[in-house]
Amino acid sequence: MFSSFTFEGNLYDFSEAPQRAPIGIFDSGVGGLTVLHQLYRQLPNESIIYFGDTARLPYGIRSQTEILQFAREILTWMQQKHVKMVVMACNTSSALALEAVREEFSMPILGLILPGARAAVNSGKRIGVIATAATAKSNAYRHAILEINPNVQVWQVSCPEFVPLIEQNRIYEPYTLQVVRSYLEPLLQHEIDTLVYGCTHYPLLAPVLRSLLPSHVKLVDPAQYVVAACAQDLDILGLRNTYPPLPTRFAVSGCPQQFAQSSLQWLGYTPATEPVQLTNVTFSSL
């Protein structure tokens, strides 16, 4: 499983120390940076390869067939980079593709739905989920939450405008506040006590959401809990890295400059980002 790869002109060999191999993360765009932040916080010694499928975002409007194909292509690329584990930093992929690809790839692959559902059940009894259209349609969170505790109540809202607004860095515009208010209205009418971020982009809207939600409503970020699960699996497999990490490697299927510019406010620096062409990728003009 583990071999070597070249990064920034240096050859790294993982065959003698497989725990030094990187963790792969992928999302449609900058949303997965919320998972990256949790990895930095909880697993600071891990090296990371981040892939943003920006040529094909948003994922939330895609079919299950498309999402499964995208996941296969990205995971194949990551397998070639000799990652030791992959975190699907995308709820849509977790909902529509995780079960299938786990049977097709040898490395451990973690998704967001189950960790997020467990955290939601531990948080409250009246649970709202905001998600992409595809994730909401799949009912993945509803099924997972009710399987854990059939006595809670769950309401879902599809929020198709959120990802484009976040990717365009329009979070603090008056229009975005209006959109957020309209999506939250039905959940507030149900008097929710917990709100689950059903998309990794959505924590980036936290200041806007918090300004509109009652103070008692708890926000559940599945990113925090999937990384905790990642840490547990690394320990079980004996793959937690104790060496200094390599610099995070960023790659995208679309425009590297646009991703780097969008990432600046979330990372605090402009990441060096490389373009990667995956099999069957149709590039949009950015």
Automatic annotation (TrEMBL):
Keywords from UniProt, A to Z, are: Cell shape, Cell wall biogenesis/degradation, Isomerase, Peptidoglycan synthesis
Q: Which pathway does the database say it acts in?
A: Cell wall biogenesis; peptidoglycan biosynthesis
List of residues binding substrate: D27, S28, Y59, G60, N91, T92, T200, H201
For this UniProt entry, the molecular function terms from Gene Ontology, in alphabetical order, are: glutamate racemase activity
Coiled-coil portions = none
Is rRNA-binding tagged as a keyword? no
Alphabetical list of InterPro entries matching this protein: Asp/Glu/hydantoin_racemase, Asp/Glu_race, Asp/Glu_racemase_AS_1, Asp/Glu_racemase_AS_2, Glu_race
GO terms classed as biological process? cell wall organization; peptidoglycan biosynthetic process; regulation of cell shape
Active site location: C90, C199
Q: Which Pfam families match?
A: Asp_Glu_race (PF01177)
* The reaction(s) this protein catalyses: L-glutamate = D-glutamate
Q: What family does the entry list?
A: Belongs to the aspartate/glutamate racemases family.
Instruction: Report what the protein is called.
Output: Glutamate racemase
